[in-house]
Write a structure and sequence with these properties.
CATH class: Alpha Beta
Distance between the termini: 22 Å
Order of helices and strands: EEHEHH
Mean pLDDT: 93
CATH topology: GIY-YIG endonuclease
Structural class: alpha+beta
Number of domains: 1
CATH architecture: 3-Layer(aba) Sandwich
Shape: globular
Strand content: 25-35%
Number of strands: 3
Strand order of the largest sheet: 2-1-3
Low-confidence stretches: none
Radius of gyration: 12 Å
Helix content: 25-40%
Largest sheet: 3 strands, antiparallel
Number of helices: 3
């Protein structure tokens, strides 16, 4: 099973949307800056804003792409 999630950084006032198989592990990777050149490595104050868990990976990717395509904080807040 998989998850889609939205992280929020107060410092950057930005959201990050992703999908994964193990949400806790993936969020820890973001906070530990495992991928040094990634967007989430810019700060370490990411908080889980929203998640949908226990769905098929294909569905999680579809939801992630849809959210990213909207490119809107207002869209995220309205969900």
């Amino acid at each position: 099973m998989a998850s889609v999630y939205i992280l929020y950084s107060k410092r950057l006032n930005r959201f990050y949307t992703g999908s994964c198989h193990e949400i806790k592990l993936r969020i820890d990777q973001h906070l530990e800056k495992l991928y040094k050149n990634s967007f989430t490595a810019k700060t370490d104050d990411w908080e889980l804003f929203f998640s949908i868990e226990n769905i098929e990976y294909r569905q999680a990717r579809h939801i992630e792409k849809h959210i990213k395509k909207m490119k809107s904080k207002q869209y995220i807040f309205n969900q």
